[in-house]
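>> received
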Amino acid sequence: MVVVGQKEIQDVFASVTDHGSAIIGRIDGDFTRTSLHELGKIVWPVIKEAISGLRDQALRDLEIATDAQKVCGLTAVGRRVRETVSATLLIEEDYHVKGSISQTNGIATVSSNVDVRDEIDDVVDKLIENVLDTGGHVVFVPSGSLSEMDRIVLLLGDPKDRTSA
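>> returned
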């Protein structure tokens, strides 16, 4: 978690939270009029620094994962992400797809249409949210490193199961 806001408010938050260990960084300032998209750009360098150590491990996990442990491509990942607990999502760091994910009969469908009521118009952002909501992890990898897997991969199961294979 990256905490943003005026220093005084951050200090008060830090003094009362039970989740201080989840804070990976702080950014001081007034962001009340900042759009979510711009706020994402502001916090991204902090997040990128914090997750850089996870990248190498995730790529090793991908290398040893069996075909049954990998879901590749935007549509396939979109269909599996909500039903999978504690998965690891690997995404090329510059991968964005305009659109939304709709639920039809419990199945996620990727659509190029954007619902104007949604704050998020990037399918990849929505998949990231879904993975995090199910207790999973998201790792960004260099552009081009997942080109043979359509730029996005969901690793299923516990990473410990992959390392013992």
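>> The chain has a mean pLDDT of 82.
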